[in-house]
Amino acid sequence: MADKLKVLSLTRCEGLKRTPDFSGCVSLERLSFYHCPNLQEVDSSIGKLKGLTNLDIIWCKSLRTLPEEVEGLVNLKLFSTRGCKKLKKLPSSIWKLASLSRIHISSTGITSLPNSIDNGKHLFQLDLGDTPIAELPTSIGELTQLEYLSLYQCPNFQELPESIGNLTSLEYLYLSETKIVELPDSIKNLTQLKVMCIEGTLIRRLPASIGLLERLKELNARHCKELEGEIPPEIGKLSSLRILDLSKTRIRAVPMTINSLTQLQKLDLTDCNELQELPKLPLSLKCLRVRSTSLRLVADLRNLTNLVEFLCQGSGQAPGQASNPMQTVPLSLCLPEPSMDSNSVVFGLQLPNLRNLTRLDHYRSPLREIQLDGLELLRDLAVRECEFLKGLSISLRNLRQKEVFDCSKLHEVRFLGKMELLEKLHVKKCNSLGKLSSLSNLKKLKSLLVDECDALKDLEGLEELELLSFLSFVRCGSLERLTHAPKSKPKMPNGCRMYVLDCAKFQGPSRSTFSFEDYWKDEMKKSETAS
């Protein structure tokens, strides 16, 4: 029977220290050892498996060596030792297997590759991630069919050889969390490249030659803390680019040529705190994230009619002592008028053109009122740290989740019209908020959480919420009761869970957790006693 066996897989065999003799398994095509923690040795007879195409030895943490006899695996296509941390060297013969197309040796102890890679012409995947490898041999350029190369989380890796430019078939290049400081000029030759990730590296600049990567779809330079100055205008030549992530870098400016990226769908500039200006952006954008403490000027973004997610945060400073402070402006971030404080900004939301927007995060605006008319598809809305916001009126029938945090001057939130899809409402640290109005319009509200709103007294229409399942009030010092006892019982379900903590004036049950039925009985007793 063994001579007809084609697949052998051993998983979590804790007693296995050495593989069996494979001499009788001449038909074997797939061989795998998964999570065998005590496996130390692979029998040399493995070289007799001439028909073997897949060899997986994964997370066998005691394995230190492999026999040179693996050179007999003349039909091997996949070789993986992922997670074998004590394996520090591969047999030199592994690189001579002409049929090998995929090598996965990530999370091993392997420190280097051989200087000569003789028969790697069919290799199209090479995963070296999370290894101590410090450099690649010049011969890496001989892997002309390579499509995928990963050095992700190789903490000792510092420099790509110029021969990397010979990998003209390369489509995916992952260099994230390495120590590289620059990309070689030969990178321009990788004309088939689709994805390049340099996240968390020490790269200081993007070369102008990057503009020659016309097939590049994703460029991730997130968290490159040394990346500074201006992005080269040649980036505007990346006609296939869909995702550009420059978040948490020190860039000062994005070139105007970015408007030429007609395929760009996601632009992330979160926590780019030296970014001062944002130019006109391509209308293809679906997701835009911008957050900078230095942001002073943003071009008119009303043409971004395909946006489904938007986050923008400027400096959040007050509009000074202007006699007629602006109440609403088109979606733009403007330089202050002469009568305003020299460091101030005016940022407003009036977004009727962004009809496809489904998520909006609005941070640190000095505006006193936010206009959201026309956002018919908006599902998630977050308004945070808007220090000068005084009123908020919402009439968005597709809204499902809403958060309002740290708006210290907000005195009222109004829900206008039928907002029958809103399921969750969370209000926090709005110290001037005295009233939530027209809650009865929120027919499908299931969860209402209010934290640290010390002035809150009135919950207009709360008793009409038939689907409410959770209600929480924490540190709302002025709140006395949830509903006033009417002649008929409110529509709120008896099983609605309630949590009230540190609300000094609250007159409901003394315990912090109770049901609406408990609360209502308590209210009725008080009403009868009073009469």
Topology record:
Elements: E1 7-11, E2 30-34, E3 54-58, E4 78-80, E5 102-104, E6 125-127, E7 148-150, E8 172-174, E9 195-197, E10 218-220, E11 228-230, E12 243-245, E13 250-253, E14 266-269, E15 277-278, E16 287-291, E17 297-298, E18 309-313, E19 332-334, E20 346-348, E21 359-363, E22 380-384, E23 391-394, E24 401-405, E25 412-415, E26 424-428, E27 435-437, E28 447-451, E29 458-459, E30 470-474, E31 497-501, E32 513-515, H1 516-530
Parallel strand pairs: 1-2, 2-3, 3-4, 4-5, 5-6, 6-7, 7-8, 8-9, 9-10, 10-12, 11-13, 12-14, 14-16, 15-17, 16-18, 18-21, 21-22, 22-24, 23-25, 24-26, 25-27, 26-28, 27-29, 28-30, 30-31
Antiparallel strand pairs: 19-20, 31-32
Protein name: Disease resistance protein RPV1-like
Domain Disease resistance R13L4/SHOC-2-like LRR: 93-173
InterPro entries: Leu-rich_rpt_4 (IPR025875), Leu-rich_rpt_typical-subtyp (IPR003591), LRR_dom_sf (IPR032675), LRR_domain-containing (IPR050216), LRR_R13L4/SHOC2-like (IPR055414)
Describe, in plain words, how this protein is organized in 3D.
Helices cover 3% and strands 23% of the residues. The chain is mostly beta strands and 531 residues long. It has a domain at 1-110: Ribonuclease Inhibitor (Leucine-rich repeat, LRR (right-handed beta-alpha superhelix), Alpha-Beta Horseshoe). It has a 22-stranded mixed beta sheet. The chain has a four-stranded parallel beta sheet with strand order 23-25-27-29, with no helix packed on it. The relative contact order is 0.04. This is Disease resistance protein RPV1-like. Keywords: Leucine-rich repeat, Repeat. Residues 93-173 form the Disease resistance R13L4/SHOC-2-like LRR domain. It comes from Rhodamnia argentea. InterPro entries: Leu-rich_rpt_4, Leu-rich_rpt_typical-subtyp, LRR_dom_sf, LRR_domain-containing, LRR_R13L4/SHOC2-like.
